[in-house]
Amino acid sequence: MKRSIRPESAGPIGRRAARVLAAGVVMAAAGGLLVVTGGTAGAAVTCASPVFKRTFYANTGFSGTPRKTDCDSGIDENWGAGAPASGLLKDNFGVRWTVTRDFGSGGPFSFAAQARDGIRVYLDGVRKTDLWQNVSATRSKTVDVTIPSGTHTLRVDYVNWTGAANAKFTYAPRTSRDVDKVKPLVPTGTSLSYAAHNARFGWARGKEMDLAGYRVYRRLKGASYGGKPLATTTATSYTDTSLPRNGAVYYYEVRAVDKAGNESAGTADQGVTTADETAPTAPRGVERNWSMDEADDVYLDWEPNTEPDLAGYRVYRSTGKPVAVTPANLVSGSAPLTRTAYYGPLPQTGDGYYYVVTAVDTHGNVSAPSAASQEFMTRDETPPNETALNARAAESEAGVTVSWDKSTATTDDFAGYRVYRSTSPRPEGTKMQGERVGEYVRGTSFTDRAPKPGVTYHYWVVAADDAGCLGTPSVDMEVPVRGNTTAPAAVTGVTVTPKENGVSIGWDASDDPGLDHYEILRGTSAAGQWTYKPLIDPVTLRAWELTGTHHHDRVAADGEQVRYGVIAVDQYGNALTPDGGATVVDVTELDVSPDAGATPAATGAPFTSLGSHWYGEHSWIPWILSPEADEGGRRATGVNVYRWNPATHVFDKLTATPVPREEGGYWDTTLPQGTSSFYRVTVVFDDGTESGAAQTALAAG
Containing domain of residue 356, as a range? Predict the structure, then answer.
């Protein structure tokens, strides 16, 4: 199994950056810090039984959103001391396997589990195995379980608290004769066909895991089944080539047998009347018929059959293979064709059609179908039946809303309504001239949120199917758009709460019908004058467009006096300003910054740049050093990193030895969460001296 490599592993900055980008992390400057966002795992996964569905959790309580979900054909993992999946740590994770399957008649089974640390096995929610302890060695346990017949669910929970991790689980039926006394279920889905004097008897495969095979029995009408089977097979069908050709009726049944020798009851009788005539051979050459382009008509020909009692041919058509030889698919009429060719129209439905031909003799015997023709493609020229009835349009602060009544007619391939907008009326006989502003609308209304003010628009609605065919358009609706120049009202209920890792802002939801999003402004004061800057979205690098009613501004808590404003913005960009009525609230940040006089002193260090970036549980302190030698000729050989400890009021040295300058940065893997961390970074020269410190800070958690 491949192991994920964590971005905090040792290595040059180039390798670290590549790993961060590979994990889908996006970085952008905001307020002097580097903010990191990442994707979330957990797309919906479906695993076909008996494959297990496997989910990974970043905790041992199997709570929250799984970090990864996939399918696992068997439980046999050895992650060692590594993490089991990308986004997980090597300790304190959980893995859950589940599978629901049909056990047929059930019976005695053995469950074998082994793990280091904890493993539990459940059958239909009832715990059967419990090895649940943080251990340093692998433990094993095998239990015997009787599983009732039918469908049941197995669940295996595994957790790793610390140390190496491995897990294995198998389940299997116990098949010794003195243990297994449960008969298999009676086979289902039996079918019997008769052609060319042979009877083909088929059935569905049983669900028992200890199934050994099947015994097929045959009897003449009026007689009983003997003790000896006609045949024993592991397949799900048997072709009887030994039937007499005497027109008599014969019956068949099949019984399932398991590995312990238990035999099921027999299936219901399936009878066949033998015939003394042989059906014609399947016509040949049909598979050579094809068309290069989309066809309006089809012409087929094939080689003639040579049977002396041949009555003719029948032609069948369907949109898939194999072509079922049924009355619904018959296109050549009830009377057999006496020629070796067929010509007929193709329905223009956009489907591909296949043809087969059967031969019929004068006794009514029908051959097997020929090989299918190549696919004949058609165009979908059938418009949908849906119509936007009683359409109307009106402007409000939300934009121009087009509404209509539900259609009384429906179509299987209906894809949704399209809404068109134009500055001129829809020309008679056209459906899609204009700008398409709405598509795949399944309901009965659509709002064009921001049409240009001062323009008169014409709207109409038309249904579309999967092939793009358009139905009957609605009436043309003329709307002079006035637009909206009024900003949404001031946001109410604004609260700001200083935290050790920034400031949390909350507010009441705006009820403005044209509301598009919220923006947050952060204000700082200089000489009594407040200056505001919007909080920046690290993905778009523009003002953060928020749709919720809460946001956490992750900034280092250094006791700064700031002011936050929350403004509502409508679809036209109208919004209040702090000087024009927007709600603003003053707050003093908490101060967890270093004490005055703490060492190493922040007197400066020869860095061209120094930063600090938060990556979830760790931080990255990147630097670019000034030229290799200073004015005194000293050369920088390494870097020391210190972090302020508010409990002891000293800077803890994080680097046991100086980090080589070419590393370009330092990973802090012991970063405290939920607070602000202040770093001081110094340069070590080749003569053993150490420079003053440069300071950087970040908020985490």
Answer: 286-377
Q: What angle do CA 237, 241, 244 make, to 5 degrees?
A: 130
Q: How far is C-alpha 286 from the geometric centre of its chain's CA atoms?
A: 43
In whole angstroms, what is the distance from residue 538 CA to residue 27 CA?
Answer: 6
CATH number at residue 633: 2.60.40.10
Q: Report helix, strand or coil for 574.
A: coil
Q: Residues 62, 160: one domain?
A: yes
* CB 701, CB 652: distance < 8 Å: no
pLDDT tens profile 79-112: 999 999 988 999 999 999 999 999 999 999 999 9
φ, ψ (nearest 5 deg) of residue 407: -70, 140
Flag whether 622 is in a domain: yes
d(CA 594, CA 640): 18
Instruction: Let me know if residue 38 belongs to a domain.
Output: no
Range 55-59, long-range pairs (CB < 8 A, 24+ positions): 55/95, 55/96, 56/84, 56/85, 56/88, 56/93, 56/94, 56/95, 57/93, 57/94, 57/95, 57/96, 58/87, 58/88, 58/89, 58/92, 58/93, 59/92, 59/93, 59/94
Q: Are 441 and 462 in contact (CB under 8 A)?
A: no
- Name the strands in the sheet holding 75-80, side by side, starting at the edge strand that comes first in the sequence: 75-80, 165-173, 107-116, 139-147
Q: How many domains does the chain have?
A: 6
In angstroms, the CA 620 to CA 464 distance is: 53
- To which residue do tokens 């509301």 refer? 515
Q: Quick one: residue 293, left, alpha or beta (phi over 0 = left, psi -120 to 50 = alpha)?
A: beta
Cα 26 versus chain centre, distance: 21
Residues in contact with 4: Cβ distance below 8 Å, sequence separation at least 6, in sequence order? 82, 83, 85, 86, 87, 88
Contact 635, 685 (CB under 8 A): yes
Instruction: Look at residues 353, 377, 401 and tell me which one is the last residue of a structural domain.
Output: 377
What are the backbone dihedrals phi and psi of residue 165, each rounded to the nearest 5 degrees, phi first?
-130, 130
How many angstroms from the chain centroid is the CA of residue 480?
A: 44
What digits encode the pLDDT tens for the residues 577-620?
Answer: 999 999 999 999 999 999 999 999 999 999 999 999 999 889 99
Beta bridge partners of 99: 154
Say how far apart CA 630 and CA 686 lie, in whole Å: 11
pTM of the model: 0.46
Phi-psi region of 528 (alpha: psi -120 to 50; beta: other; left: phi over 0): left
- Residues 517 and 545 sit within 8 Å (Cβ to Cβ): yes
- The answer to whether position 24 is within a domain reads no
- Asked if 150 and 103 count as a contact pair (C-beta separation under 8 A), the reply is yes
